[in-house]
Design a protein that fits this description.
The protein is of the alpha/beta class. The protein is built from eleven helices and 13 strands. Strand 9 and strand 10 form a beta hairpin. The structure holds uridine 5'-triphosphate.
Amino acid sequence: MKAVIPCGGLGTRFLPITKSIPKELLPIVDVPVLSYIINESINSGVTEVLIVINPKKQIIKDYFSRDDELYEKLHKLGKADLIEQLNLFNNIDIRFIEQKSPLGLAHAVYLAKEFVGNEPFCLLLGDDLTISETPVTKQLIDLFYQTSSTIIGVQRCDNDDIVKYGVADVIDYNGKFSRIKGIIEKPPISKLPSRLACFGRYILKDIFRYIKNIGMANNGEYLLTDALGKQCLDSSVFAYEFEGSRYDMGDKLSSLKAAIELSLLRKDFGKELKKYIKELATRI
Ligand code: UTP
């Protein structure tokens, strides 16, 4: 299956750094968020990725392009380990398309129409990072092969943060897997249709014809939620409670938490970091 990763947004929640550095390229120590997301798709069996950027995010393209001069220098210095890290994306076809202005997620997804054709595809939001034993996208793909329907990755959100997300309006709640009749975008806490928030991972089937028929929302954007709502009216759409942790990398505190979690897993300094955090905890 192909994957689409939209990175065309403005990243206003992460200003001032996002004035010049896209949030999708912000580092978890030395590796950008987007690399983790591409790795999730590779580990889920994806071989072709389309990244949607905006005209000010050419730096994303630079990051994934081959730098022969650097390779040569590293080769001469005998830095095989570093070359190996740069080679990580050699086996995947990464393409780019420009979204001229940030007209919303549905608009960004529509730009992938030619790239994906009539096939179902994975959508991984460029600012949502997941950590799980089985990659979250793989969990969704596995389920897709059983249902052949659009699947939305959700997780229970028991706190008030839920009002920041699209929330699934569930018809038959069946453990981790539910059919839905729509998604309510950022509902007030008094009107929550469920506690299942949509967290940035999807398998989309036949979505373009629904996107084509939505209007612009009050915030000036075309919302994927609106297209999915229309799809629910004439075919089955499922919400799947995926396993793993998910971090909103467009949110400052959440991004710091992800950096700590992922750094603790590192072989090169994870143990040292753990020691430091324990020692720090005795002082604060
Ligand atoms: P967000 O709404 O979280 O990102 O979109 P944003 O608009 O950049 O962030 P804030 O709210 O201003 O801080 C989720 C993902 O979809 C992409 C974003 O780049 C992000 O990775 N996106 C969003 C697009 O590609 N195009 C858009 O028009 C909007």
